[in-house]
Amino acid sequence: MTGFMPALDEMRELVDRHARPDMSTAIEGIQLCRFTHPNASAAGMSGTVLAVIAQGGKRLALGERLYDYGPGEYLIASADLPVTGHVLDTGQPTLGFGMTLTPSALAELLLEADPRDLPTTPRTASPGIAVSTASPLLLDAIVRLLRLLEQPADRKILAPMVKREILWYLVRGEQGAAIRQLGLADSGLAHINRAVRQIRENYATAFRVEDLAEIAGMSVSAFHRSFHTVTGMSPIQFQKRIRLQEARLLLASRPSDITGVGLSVGYDSPSQFSRGYRRMFGTPPSKDTQLRTPSAELVTALP
Description:
Residues 282-303 are annotated as: Disordered. By secondary structure, the protein is α+β, with helices and mostly antiparallel strands. It folds into three domains: 2-183, Regulatory protein AraC (Jelly Rolls, Sandwich); 188-236, Arc Repressor Mutant, subunit A (Orthogonal Bundle); 246-298, Arc Repressor Mutant, subunit A, CATH 1.10.10. 45% of the residues lie in helices and 17% in strands. It has eleven helices and nine strands. A hairpin with a 2-residue loop joins strand 4 and strand 5.
């Protein structure tokens, strides 16, 4: 731990100085967060991201899987997954760094890398979310990227280089197998991500698992195994979570149209919608106090 404390201290100061309410920064694909108080659980899509905690902590739930990460730890989401998360009560503000991971940037890096410098990438899919301890090299690169927020004359040229360096440390790190699969068009993760996108873009429509398996280029049995490995749930459970998360977002602006919202996300009846909503959020849609918060706060923030 002592090896990266100076970098972590500087990262904390830089995140605290530059974090905005909307988490945006002057560097494309980089987000910073500052949460001053623990918050209620919020549901949303993870995106494909690197999230690093400088201070405080967060907990993320994917199906029945829980992921806690704190200072000096990073979380990787290598698929766009329906997650629920909240800020942990550590007695201090939670400060975090996030970077969007794009398959094209990873693919370009992998094409230029010497395969001998990379561990073997398995063809089977890896879990879509993982947590590890950040190396001193990774934290140092993040700090140098954050310094560029105060160096506008250097930022345009140097920021892409440092982001590329961060990716390199990730593909060489403990979660490198999952990261590399995100950049490989023929990896098991890439096949599952095609099915994930199909469900995500057509969440209100019923599907046949056989059709999803065909989209992924797998047998039905292999598809079921790989889908559960990546997402922690079955395709039907995955679709239900997305439907209910979308419903909650819609209800934030249409709280009196419970029946209409339920039908719009694919439920056949108000009673079926209310039962599913209660199971996921612990309260029926008519009594969900979270719907009185701004809609942006209903989406899980990564970092």
